[in-house]
Amino acid sequence: MNLRRVWVQCLKELVEFRRDRLTVALAFALPIGMLLIFGFAIRLQIKNIPVAVQDFDRSPFSRDFISRIGASQELVVVPEPLGPSPTTILDAGNVRAVIVIPPGTQRALAAGRPAPIQSLVDATDVVNALTIKQILTATSAFVGATYAPPSAPPTVALHVRIWFNPGGNEALFIVPGVYAVILAMFPTLLAAIAMVRDKERGTIVQAYASRLRASELIAGKCVALECIGLAEALAIMAIGFAVWGVRFAGDPLPLLIGTPLLVCCQVLLGLLIGARMNTVTSAIQASGSVNSLVSVLLSGFMYPVFTMPPFFQLLSYIVPARHFINITRDAFVRGAGWPGVWTEVLTLAVIAMVLAVGAWLPMRRMQLPDEG
User: Fold this and answer.
1) How far is Cα 30 from Cα 237, in angstroms, rounded to an integer?
2) Architecture of the structural domain at 49-147
C-alpha cells in the first residue's frame, strides 16, 4: 500500500466534504439536534400519571391515603364524583386508574379485619400500569400499617444504597447512550454517500483507470471520514458536558480508544454499503433505515439486551453500538475502567477488521499498479 496515494485520497475527500454544505450540515447540525432532542425529550421515570379516587369512607385514613398518592411525583389525583361507576370513569380515557375506598375502611383496619380497596388500572400502556400498581401497593401497605392495630415489629429491615448514580440523574444514562447512537448512524451515512457519489459523478472510473489500489481507495476514504467522525464525537461530547454536566467518572482511556474504533467500524460499514449501491438514494435508505433501527433497538439504548429473546441477544453482539454504549456508560457513570470494558474494546477491534475485509471485497478487482 502506497501511503502517499492514501494521503492524497484522504485530502480529496476532505476537500469535497468542506465544499458540500449539505454534507457538513448532515455531519454536525443533525447530530447536535438529535442529541438535544433525545437528551431533553426521553425520560425513563414516568411522572404525572392521572388517577381518580372515589372516597366513600371520608375518614382520616382515606384522606391520608389520597394525600400520599398525590405527594408522589408519579401520580396526580384527579377529583371525580362518587356517582359514576369506576369502569365508566376509566372508559372516558381521562385517567389511567380509578381507586375506590369503600365506607368503613378505617373501622375495619382498627378492628384488625381485612379492608380491601379497589383499584382499576388501564393496562393499555403496560409500563404505566406496572408503575401505578407498585405505587398503590406500597402506599396501601404503609398507610394500612399506620392505622392497623400494633403488631410485632418486622425482623428484617432492608437498607438500600444507590450506587454509581445516587442522584438518579437520567441524563447520565440517556446522553452517553445517545453518543453511541449518533456515532453509529451519521459516519455510516456519510461514508455510504461518499462512496456512491463517486459512482454517480463518474469519478470512480478515474480511480479504476489509475494506479490506485482498492485498499488505498478505501483507506483514504476511511481516514478522511474517521477524522470527520471524531470531530462529531468531540462536538457532541462537549455539548453533553456543557448542557447536562456529563463528565468522566473514571479512567477515560477505554473511551479514547473505543471511540475511534466505533467510528472506524461505522465508516467501513458505510463504505461496504456504498460499494454495493449505485445511487445516493438507495445508499441513504440502506444505511439510514437499517443501521439506525439496529443501533437503536439492538444496542441496549432503549431496551436492556438481556430482556430480549435469545436470538436477538446473539445478534446484538455484531452491533458495534452495543459495545460502545457499555464503554460510554462506564466512562461517564460507572468508572470501572479497563476491568469492566476491555472485552468491548477488543470486540470493536475485531468487528472493524471484519468490516475492512467486507468493504475491500467489492472493490478488489480494481486495476493493480504495474510492477516496478
Assistant:
1) 15
2) 3-Layer(aba) Sandwich (3.40)
